[in-house]
Amino acid sequence: MLNWLFGKEKSVEPIQLNRIGIDIHSHLIPGIDDGAQTVEESMEMIVKMKSLGYSRLVTTPHVIWDCYRNTPAIIMEGLQTLRAACSAAGIDIQIDAAAEYFLDEHFVEMLRNGEQLLTLPGNRVLVELPYSTPLMNTSELLFTIIEKGYQPVLAHPERYTYFYSDPSIFRKLVDQGCELQVNALSLGNYYGPNVNKMAEWLLENQLITFLGSDAHKMAHLNMIAKGDKNRWLSKYPFQNEKLIEILQP
User: Fold this and answer.
1) What InterPro entries does UniProt report for this protein, alphabetically (predicted)?
2) Kind and range of the H or E element at 125?
3) The dihedral of CA 53, 58, 64, 65: what is its sign?
4) Is the pTM higher than 0.85?
5) Count of domains forming the chain
6) For residue 129, how many C-alpha atoms fall within 13 Å in the half-sphere facing its CB?
7) Cβ atoms 37, 229 nearer than 8 A
8) Which of 22, 128, 164, 233 could form a disulfide with 155 if both were Cys (CB 3.0 to 4.6 A apart)?
9) Which domain holds residue 35?
10) pLDDT tens digits for 30-65?
11) pLDDT of 97-113, one tens digit each?
12) For residue 200, what is the enclosing H or E element?
C-alpha cells in the first residue's frame, strides 16, 4: 500500500529557519493543553525558537471540547502572561495567539452560531482531524469554514494515516480551497518513516503551503535544531513570510 511513497534519496542540509520567519503552530501557553506546562518551560521554548531564526510566533493552543475547553478569553489571558514574561526577561520577539481547532461537534456549533474564532493572519483557521478514524464529512466541513468567510489551514496532513491509501484526497482538499501545513519534525523520522514519506510526497507535489513547528515541549525544538532534516527546509517555497506582511501595522 505504501510503495508509492518510497524511492528518492534525500540530501541533507543544515537547518535554515530565518527565511521561514514566522511559526504558526505551537503550544506555548502554559497549562492549558498538552504543550508547555509552566511559564518557565514556555520561556525556554521561546528563547530556543528565537535562536532557530523565528522572528515572530503565533501560538495555537488546542481547542478540543472533550479535552481542552479553551475559549478566546482563556487563550488571550495566557498570551498576556507570555508577553509579560518575555518583557520581564528582555526577550524581544513578537508573540500572538490563534488556536488549533479539532473538527468536532463543538467547532461546528461555533461556526453555526457565528462565535468568535481565533485566527492566523489572513483570517485563516488552523484545524485538525482525528488521527485514528476519518471524519465522514471532512470536505463538507472545510467548505463550510470557507462559506463562513475563513481560510481553512489543515494541520499536519501527513499524520492522518487513513488517507495514505488514496493521497489524491489532499489534492482535492487543496483544489477545494484548503491550505496544508506540514510539521518540521515530519521532515525527519520523529513520527516514523511513513509520516516522513507522506510529508515528502506532499512537498514533491507542491501541496504544502506552510511549515509549522507544532512544538509542545523543548524536546521537539531540540530535534528540529539538530539540523538533520532534508532539503525541504532550505529550498521549498513555504509561504510563512507572507503572513508577516499581513501582520505589519
Assistant:
1) Caps_polysacc_synth_CpsB/CapC, Pol/histidinol_Pase-like
2) strand 124-128
3) positive
4) yes
5) 1
6) 24
7) no
8) 128
9) 15-243
10) 999 999 999 999 999 999 999 999 999 999 999 999
11) 999 999 999 999 999 99
12) helix 193-204
